[in-house]
Design brief:
The chain is mainly alpha-helical. It has one domain (58-285): MetI-like (MetI-like fold, Orthogonal Bundle). It is built from 13 helices and no strands. The protein is globular, with a radius of gyration of 24 Å.
């Protein structure tokens, strides 16, 4: 009886989290997959089973492939840069330097800002002719440029803004990881005549690999979840040069009212993220040194 009471008590404690997980994660995923197998329902035409027709349409959609390539370039531009800056900032603020608390707060402040607010800040920077960047360039005799209206510069502009937003967040994890490393290791390295770079590369970085694994997976997932800034900055333009998968899903579902195709896009994105995250986990896991 006692064991049964404990089991019931444990399940009751677990039930709220399980209900929320099923209601907001598992059920929407299953419902989205089912929607992708049926045609759109209207007042005069009921929904009918179409199988994987939406997925065939996905692979034949040139806009989708352009959006997919944009998202991969965004991930390639933001992930290594954000991680590298996060490590550098963590190494700086981990030292006993004057104003260390203020410096930590400065690095972390962009992370606390909502993405819409960040987009409006950078919209002021990127505005042609009257923006801060063009004003500074004008001092040195350069002409103004429409950074968000040029297909060649719009995606790099978004990458820079995303790195500014995310690097401080990842810095917190690296700072926590650095503070778990015994200072005796640095003292021993100094006694052996090791340089700062050699100490970082041979000792600190290997011990930070668990943190890097966590940050790498989260950074990759975040690169496919960022969509708020596109509403303010570009709406995916010009000519889909800055469009990303999540924004394309939003457009398909709520602007074009094609729920079936939007569901197929969502399932594809979820499957790709799951496979990539698992691959990263198992690949990097072999190189992780746990303490």
């Amino acid at each position: 009886m006692k064991n049964s009471a404990k089991n019931i008590h444990g399940w009751l404690l677990f039930a709220p989290a399980a209900i929320l997980l099923v209601a907001f994660t598992h059920y929407p995923t299953i419902a989205t997959f089912i929607n992708s197998l049926f045609s759109n329902q209207s007042v005069i035409r009921p929904s009918r089973f179409t199988g994987i027709d939406s997925y065939y349409m996905l692979f034949e959609d040139p806009v989708f492939w352009k959006v997919f390539v944009n998202n991969m370039w965004l991930a390639l531009g933001t992930i290594p840069t954000s991680i590298g800056l996060a490590i550098l900032m963590a190494l700086i603020v981990n030292k006993a330097i004057p104003g260390r608390g203020f410096l930590r707060m400065s690095y972390f402040t962009p992370t606390m800002l909502p993405m819409i607010a960040v987009a409006n800040i950078w919209l002021f920077f990127y505005a042609p002719d009257i923006g801060l960047i063009d004003k500074v360039l004008g001092i040195f005799g350069f002409d103004g440029h429409n950074w968000l209206g040029d297909p060649d510069t719009v995606l790099p502009a978004i990458i820079i803004m995303t790195v500014w937003k995310e690097a401080g967040f990842f810095m917190i994890f690296y700072l926590a990881g650095l503070q778990t490393i015994s200072p005796e290791l640095e003292e021993a390295a100094q006694l052996e005549g090791s340089s700062r770079w050699n100490y970082f590369w041979r000792i600190q970085f290997p011990l930070l690999l668990p943190t890097t694994l966590f940050v790498l997976i989260n950074a990759f997932l975040n690169s496919f979840k960022l969509v708020d800034h596109l509403f303010v900055l570009t709406k995916g333009g010009p000519d889909n040069a800055s469009n990303l998968i999540l924004y394309y899903i939003y457009e398909t579902a709520f602007s074009f009212l094609d729920i079936s195709y939007a569901s197929a896009l969502t399932v594809f994105m979820l499957a790709m993220l799951a496979v990539t995250a698992l691959a990263q986990f198992f690949f990097v896991e072999k190189r992780v040194h746990y303490r």
